Amino acid sequence: MTRHLPVLAILAVCALAGLIVALFAGSVPLTLRDVLDALLSPPASEAQKIARDIIWELRLPRALAAFVCGALLAASGVLLQVLLRNPLADPYVLGISGGAALGALGAMLAGTALTVMHLAAFAGALAAIAIVFVLSFRAGDWNPHRLLLTGVVLSAGFAALLSLILAVAPQAQLKGMLFWLLGDLSDAGASGGAWIVLVLLIAVFSWCASSLDALSLGALKARALGVAVTPLQAAIYAGAAAATVAAVMLGGSIGFVGMMAPHALRLLGVHSHRLLLPAAALAGGIFVLLADVMARTLWAPQQLPVGVFTALVGVPVLLLLLSRKT
User: Over its length of 326 residues, how does the chain's per-residue pLDDT go in tens digits?
Assistant: First the structure.
């Protein structure tokens, strides 16, 4: 593990650099002095007051929300790839995002307020979690294969209902629905709760990283090594579900992050979960942070869905890593 510690240092530096870029980038140009004055000193003029409002009210909260959203999705991806023993697993394979999207789009169709929409998305995600858990955990036995199959089937059902909502939705509501489905951080509020979930998730599962390493070899080998497999699997599912819900509530359905970030790190030789989990969180956070910068600057002042850029950038990067690995 020690030889991979520079990876964490490099990712931490990149995260800080990405945050600085996010503070500068936007439809209103700001100089280095503007940003430093806004961060470190009270405004002395109207221009400084405007710059301070842009930084503290718009760019910094959105940058923090983008980072934690990507970090949560990447951490969830790591856990689900262990649980399902499949490097292609991602946070949306279990239907949680579909349930949240169904609740959110249903609330949008009804014309409810933003708070009600968030509550509806949360209720939809919880319903999906409950359905998958009940159907996958029977008689004290956790079945990952049934878990995956249930999630895939549930996702297909949610996708059909979402298509129905989009087909009958008024034209005025359609763009907002599509943005939510593709990932949208323009309405991201305070991200404090998401940060708490992320810190707890990394702390808990870093503590039992050796058990994750054992489980990634298979349930039988993990049991032979003394791992309490069933409670660990249930904890992994609960942690991954909590991370996914927190991310989806913050930024909508931002795809590709949970699969790409941990898989890319594994291709680079990072396998120990004590390092992989925080490294994937950093990589996922940087990825979404920079994708959000692109989404709000390339077509400024119009903003584009974040999920478009996570796919456009992530696909060629992952294909390049795969080609070099083979």
Answer: 555 668 889 999 999 999 999 998 887 878 778 888 888 777 777 877 888 888 888 889 999 999 999 999 999 999 999 988 887 788 888 888 889 899 989 999 998 887 888 889 889 989 998 888 888 776 556 677 788 888 889 999 999 999 999 999 998 888 888 888 888 887 776 788 899 999 999 999 999 999 999 999 888 899 898 888 888 988 998 999 899 999 988 888 888 898 889 988 888 888 899 999 999 999 999 999 999 999 888 887 778 889 888 888 878 877 776 776 55
Using CA of residue 310, residue 313, residue 315, residue 317, what is the dihedral sign?
A: negative
Evaluate whether 77 touches 202 at the Cβ level (below 8 Å): no
Alpha-carbon distance of 197 to 186, in angstroms, equals: 21
- Cβ-based neighbour number of residue 48 at 10 Å: 16
The conformation of residue 54, written as its DSSP 8-state character, comes to I
Residue with tokens 């795969």: 322
Q: Write out 185-214 in H/E/C secondary structure.
A: CCCCCCCHHHHHHHHHHHHHHHHCHHHHHH
Q: What type of residue sits at position 50?
A: I
Cβ count near 319 (within 10 Å): 10
* Domains, the chain: 2-325 (1.10.3470.10)
Do the Cβ atoms of 296 and 112 come closer than 8 Å? Answer: no
**Tokens coding 75:** 């951490």
Distances (CA, A) of 133 to 23, 147, 161, 175: 41, 8, 21, 33
Strand segments (E) across 38-119: none
Query: Taking the mean position of all CA atoms in its chain, how far away is CA 220?
Result: 31
CA distances from 132 to 94, 151, 156, 179, 237 (A): 7, 6, 13, 27, 10
Q: Which two tokens stand for residue 79?
A: 């856990």
